[in-house]
Amino acid sequence: MEVIHSIIFIELLLLLMIIMVSVLSALESTIKQQKDTLPAHNELHFGLRFSGLRTNRWEILERVNLYAKSCLSKQQLLAAIRQMHQFLKGQETRFAEGIRSMKSRLTTLQNSVNKAIPDPPTVSCPALEAPPDGRKFGSKYTVDHEVHFACNPGFQLIGPSSRLCQENGSWSGEGPRCQDIRECASHPCQNGGTCVEGVNQYACTCPQGWSGTHCQDQAQTAAPEWSTTDDPAFSRRPRCAKVDQAQHCSCEAGFHMSGPPDNSICQDVNECEVFKQDGASRLCMHSCVNIPGSYRCSCPSGYRTLADGKSCEDIDECAGSQHACARGTICINTGGSFQCVSPECPKTSGNVSYVKTSPYQCERSPCPMDSRPCHHAPKTISFHYLALPSGLKTPVTLFRMATASPPGRPGPDSLRFGIVGGNGRGHFVMQRSDRQTGELILVQSLRGAQVLEVDVDMSEYLDRTFQANHVSKITVFVSPYDF
């Protein structure tokens, strides 16, 4: 048994010594190369020595070879181990001293070089101003620094979103400008109405006979019909009483007197027609139903009537498990309904492949070092779903995109945003809101029901070098109702 232990010990010891000798030899060689390549006029010498290194390493190998030819007892093994501990401790101390000496010499050399070679003159570019109705991000105007631009709400950036200070002291590209977003471009006014542009808003001037925010309601041009039904339930006999030899008659609330004095009848008031209005003062959010002496409000399928009796609230079928989405799909609540979606990662193409890391996100698999197409493919692809009412007033921010660097890793010094796909590109603009955030803005009002898709991209740059880009695929479900 002792023989086996000795053999194992010797093998491990031999391996350890070979590794250590190789490391020390490599260190000696590196020190010699650094010393040989230093400029002579600096008059600096490393002076790093490992005392006894050349002698000791050959001595170690001789001892290992000697041990390997003999059968050691337990006491001899322990004695050999103690000797190795002492040797390693001494070498560790010498090694640390040598490293400290090398660092000190390198610091001295660095200071000498900094004093001998002056820094080149700093090149700067002229100061830039924010475009009218816009903002500027970045206050450094030296070479390789970028300045970013964004427009105020209601305006769209025309031109580059960033400019780079170049080595010749000029800025890249042309100065951008902010153009007023034409809210009337989507023709929101109906029935021949005229759209009038405003600041971040529009107004419809309606022709005679029409009213409402979008001229969608027919105006009342004649005296209202208090009741338009012959149903007996919509009429009552008046309540009459003689006072001072004269007969006085009255009707219940919700009815009005109709007919000749000697044969009057109480006819129902059709509140839905009399008080037909648009906007916040209308009787009902959706539809008004006339009933004898009063009215009631009704909501479309997929909505519930609230306690005030006039407002409608969407029923979240997804939260209440009132949907029929198959297993493996995701339920998305929309205005008055729901949609079943199944986000899928792109199929593998060449060296580019993706794995699903969450129900709403795909991440690119590691790329081969020499595969440029793979490195330029989106690093992440995320899926987002938005439910909007019909006729939403524009402009309005729908989505924000930003970057977050892992702890301990430097983040990008420049981000660029853009719209790269989808069937609704004309309705949206993507612009920067600050240095690290981009916003997707709806600039043209949408009429439902319809489904639009828009793909937005965020590219990361570090020292003007492309690092990665991220794509967000946004699906917008527009309700047929304006609530």
What's the total helix number? 5
Q: What is the average per-residue confidence, as pLDDT, rounded to a whole number? A: 79
Q: Name the helicity range.
A: 10-25%
Q: Supply the CATH superfamily name of the largest domain.
A: Cadherins
Task: Tell me the Rg in angstroms.
Answer: 41 Å
CATH fold topology of the largest domain: Immunoglobulin-like
Widest β-sheet, arrangement of strands? 21-22-23-29-28-25
CATH class of the largest domain reads Mainly Beta
Keywords: Calcium, Cell adhesion, Disulfide bond, EGF-like domain, Extracellular matrix, Glycoprotein, Membrane, Repeat, Secreted, Signal, Sushi, Transmembrane, Transmembrane helix
Subcellular location: Secreted, Extracellular space, Extracellular matrix
Domain Sushi: 123-180
Protein name: Fibulin 7
Describe the model:
- The chain has four domains: 2-116; 120-180, Complement Module, domain 1; 224-314, Laminin (Ribbon), CATH 2.10.25; 323-478, Immunoglobulin-like (Sandwich), CATH 2.60.40.60.
- Helix content is 22%, strand content 32%.
- It is built from five helices and 29 strands.
- The protein has helices at 2-37, 53-68, 74-116, 271-274, 372-376, and strands spanning 134-137, 146-151, 155-158, 162-164, 177-180, 194-197, 202-205, 210-211, 217-218, 235-236, 239-243, 246-250, 255-258, 265-268, 287-291, 294-298, 303-305, 312-314, 330-334, 337-341, 354-358, 361-364, 380-388, 396-402, 414-422, 428-434, 437-442, 450-462, 465-478.
- The strands form eleven sheets. It has a six-stranded mixed β-sheet with strand order 21-22-23-29-28-25, with no helix packed on it. Strands 1-2-4 form a three-stranded antiparallel β-sheet, with no helix packed on it. A three-stranded antiparallel β-sheet has the order 10-14-13, with no helix packed on it.
- The longest helix has 43 residues, at 74-116.
- The chain starts with a helix and ends in a 5-residue tail after the last strand.
- The chain crosses the membrane at residues 6-27.
- Keywords: Calcium, Cell adhesion, Disulfide bond, EGF-like domain, Extracellular matrix, Glycoprotein, Membrane, Repeat, Secreted, Signal, Sushi, Transmembrane, Transmembrane helix.
- It holds the Pfam family Fibulin_C.
- InterPro entries: cEGF, ECM_structural_protein, EGF, EGF-like_Ca-bd_dom, EGF-type_Asp/Asn_hydroxyl_site, EGF_Ca-bd_CS, Fibulin_C, Sushi/SCR/CCP_sf.
